[in-house]
Amino acid sequence: MADTRHVSAYGSIERHRRDQDRLRQARRRKLLLAAVPMAPAVAFGFWLLPPLGFVIAFVCCLVLFFLAIDGGSSVPAHELIGASGEQAVLNELGKLSDDHVVFNRLMLPDDTLPGGRRELDFVVVGPSGVDIIEVKNSPGRIHVAPDKRQWPVLQRAGCGSRPVWRTLPNPLLQIRPQIAALETWLMRHSLAVPVQGVVCFSRPGAVVDNAEAAELPVITLDQVNATMTTKAATMIDPEQRRRIVAELASLKRPAGRRRPVSAAA
Question: Cα(182)–Cα(188) distance, rounded to whole angstroms?
Answer without folding.
Answer: 10
